[in-house]
Design a protein that fits this description.
- The structure is a single chain.
- This protein is mainly beta.
- The chain is built from 2 helices and 18 strands.
- It has helices at 2-28, 257-266; strands at 34-35, 38-43, 47-57, 64-69, 75-87, 90-100, 110-119, 124-135, 144-151, 157-163, 167-173, 184-187, 198-200, 205-212, 224-227, 230-234, 240-244, 249-251.
- It has a 10-stranded mixed sheet with strand order 1-3-6-5-4-7-8-2-15-18. A 4-stranded antiparallel sheet has the order 9-10-14-12, with no helix packed on it. Strands 13-11-16-17 form a 4-stranded antiparallel sheet, with no helix packed on it.
- Strand 7 (110-119) and strand 8 form a beta hairpin.
- The longest helix has 27 residues, at 2-28.
- It is globular, with a radius of gyration of 24 Å.
């Protein structure tokens, strides 16, 4: 009698495990791709490329075909350079999107928080991407002559200038929200924290490095960030000029399955 019961019990356990797996799989499944939170604050250009990251179900192909910005006069974006990494039941995509703004927008300050995405399978969704702030390019800079710039794979950026006249650098700011000001570190020569104001004479060289130092456990570590800090420069006649660093200070999250799962939970996607 015992042997006769062993087979039904085993089959029952298999069915229970099967249904549990199905339930877990459906609970973790995304209805549509979920974008990470992005924060960009960079100068406006007629052609500007920004990278966006998003999470999709692993068994679906979710490649961006085209982009439209409903908040910015229906400006369109062209995707290029997409990559895909797999983490458990999810895929993480990173795609650069180039936007071409009409000439009458190049001097304006623009903010957009969502994109209308058309996917390669023909479906269309409107997604929350965080906040992108594009500010009108500053007036032509004749005070600080650019002599060098660059950035590394960790998002650290530097710019070097030579002064063309006596100036005083009052400090550094950036457009948009200041919620990253406390974690942007600015250093000068010998990698020492840069203090302001800085008085410079004509012909002096000045270098500024910037990088993010976001503490462990801070929610901002899960965001994609790119900011071009602006130098507040006081000229000899007392006027104030804003000179942006040539490269953006950037931060990209180091993601794994646990971090992706946490992001999806925070966004209410699962």
């Amino acid at each position: 009698m015992r042997k006769k019961l062993e087979i039904p019990v085993a089959l029952g356990l298999i069915l229970v495990v099967f249904f549990i797996n199905i339930t877990v799989h459906l609970a973790a499944r995304l209805e549509e791709p979920v974008f990470l939170s992005h924060y960009y604050s960079v100068p406006m250009e007629d052609g500007i490329s920004l990278e966006f990251s998003y999470i999709a179900n692993r068994d679906e192909e979710k490649v961006i075909h085209s982009v439209r910005l409903p908040e910015v006069g229906d400006t369109e974006g062209e995707p290029w350079g997409s990559t895909r990494e797999e983490y458990g039941v999810y895929s993480l995509y990173r795609t650069s999107i180039e936007f071409c703004f009409p000439e009458d927008m190049l001097d304006a300050d623009l903010i957009f928080t969502e994109m209308e995405i058309t996917w390669q399978d023909g479906t269309r969704t409107t997604v929350d991407i965080g906040e992108v702030h594009l500010y009108g390019d500053t007036a032509e800079n004749s005070v600080l002559q650019l002599t060098g710039s660059g950035s590394d794979s960790e998002g650290r950026a530097y710019t070097k200038w030579q002064t063309q006249e006596d100036v005083e650098i009052l400090g550094v700011t950036h457009y948009g929200e200041n919620r990253f000001s406390d974690v942007i570190k600015l250093v000068g020569e010998e990698d020492k924290p840069q203090e302001f104001p800085v008085s410079l004479e004509a012909g002096d060289l000045f270098r500024l490095d910037g990088y993010f130092d976001i503490p462990q456990g801070d929610y901002r570590r899960q965001e994609v960030v790119g900011i071009r800090p602006l130098l507040q420069v006081k000229e000899t006649d007392g006027s104030i000029r804003y000179v942006p660093m040539e490269e953006a200070v950037e931060h990209s999250p180091n993601l794994g399955f646990r971090q992706i799962y946490r992001i999806l939970k925070m966004k209410g996607a699962i």
